[in-house]
Amino acid sequence: MTADDVREAGRALAERALELPELARGRTVAAYVSVGSEPGTLALLDALRARGVRVLLPALLPDNDLDWGEYTGPDSLARIQHGGKMALFEPSGTRLGPDAVTAADVVLLPGLAVDAHGMRLGRGGGSYDRVLARLERAGARPRLVVLLYDTEVVARVPAEAHDKPVHAVVTPSGVRRFPGP
């Protein structure tokens, strides 16, 4: 995809996501800044902020767990190179700790694919598996929503015993809901 295609998909994705009742009601949303060819998330982050939503963004820790910081606009992001891994855009302000995500009403998750049962395939680093386990331990029950391209919604993805389904997937063309965890 060209850079223009990625930007346009990001705009369409933001429009679809903003139609979700969960995001309309949510006061705190844990999100992420897209990287590489992932559907762009900046338009969505800015639209959420414009609605008065508190947006939390992850910061990768050395053990692949995630800390969190608040997104206050594009100037609040720093490009961080993590060793041999890809560079990520992370919040440059105060770190709130790994448990900050437990205050989220909605958690927007990256992924490589989601299947017909709502199972999400991640990148394999386990960062979001840790987040989901942390939410479960805390008794937090945010809505879990994956942001993908239409072609990344597939019949089946590999799943392990600890994997849990998400509530919805948003693509540039629409929303698909699942029974959820």
UniProtKB/TrEMBL annotation:
Keywords: ATP-binding, Magnesium, Metal-binding, Nucleotide-binding. SUPFAM superfamilies: NagB/RpiA/CoA transferase-like (SSF100950). The keyword ATP-binding applies. Its EC number is 6.3.3.2. It is an enzyme of class 6 (ligase). The keyword ATP-binding applies. It holds the Pfam family 5-FTHF_cyc-lig. It comes from the Bacteria. InterPro entries: FTHF_cligase (IPR002698), FTHF_cligase-like_sf (IPR024185), NagB/RpiA_transferase-like (IPR037171). Its cofactor is Mg(2+). It catalyses: (6S)-5-formyl-5,6,7,8-tetrahydrofolate + ATP = (6R)-5,10-methenyltetrahydrofolate + ADP + phosphate. Belongs to the 5-formyltetrahydrofolate cyclo-ligase family. This is 5-formyltetrahydrofolate cyclo-ligase. It comes from Streptomyces bangladeshensis. The lineage of its organism: Bacteria, Bacillati, Actinomycetota, Actinomycetes, Kitasatosporales.
